[in-house]
Design brief:
10 helices, 41% helix
Amino acid sequence: MPDDRSAEQLSQVPPRKADSHKGDYGRVLVIGGSRGMAGAPALAGMSALRSGSGLVAVATPAVVQPIVASFEPSYTTHALGDDRATYLTADHYNELLKIAEGCDVVAIGPGLGAKHATARLVHRLYRRLAKPIVVDADALNAISELPECIAAPGGPRVLTPHPGEFARLHGPPGKTDEERSETAAELAARDGSRQTVVVLKGNRTVITDGHDYWINQTGNPGMATGGSGDCLTGVIASLIGQGLSPLEAARLGAHAHGLAGDLAADELSQAVLTASDLPRFLGQAFRGLSG
């Protein structure tokens, strides 16, 4: 059983210097989107910006790029493929590598789709890209098709499964805090290089590096809504880009994401909360954490 360190104080991003510029606060690349799922990478990108990132780019299929770009003027977008490209494939690998060269951290999965050719792209990036990657949604499902990836990551990885995705990756997560913490730690420990952090989402999200674990105390049932996980992906990626370790970023990110949901529910009610509300409350959440 991993050690419980849930009471430990959260790490914080360093304070901003007067002579700093946008490049000092992390360059995040979000890879995602497909026909019918343009909102997911947009939510991740918006959440990264609202978590303090200086620069955010979203790489997405050409057919949905105009829609993704329309959500937020403060991130840039990269249209991959021609106008017939409705989802990303392994053919886009080299182009994505070039885009990723200028970034500090990559988030992959929101709205990516479940095509076999897309899964091949995820496998290649997971095993070869040395930069930190936050892995969510359809990218997690792609990894479950080739589970040996988990044991051989190309660099630091943060996996953010909900219980269903976790079951496909590793088996049933269990129901109690103890069971969920133990199975999440087992998944993280499959990476012998100890570069993998698991964020098992749900009521009382578990964060573990395979040795220690923490249980998040923020959040509410109103956050059980489509797109909430995409926002968390953007938050964690943003914090890694700003200099936190993947484990520190996962802990602080889960807490801030849940706190934003609590603030949103206080104002709007749990029943009507949507994922697009969360980025609006992230600033208030982080201000409360730093204050």
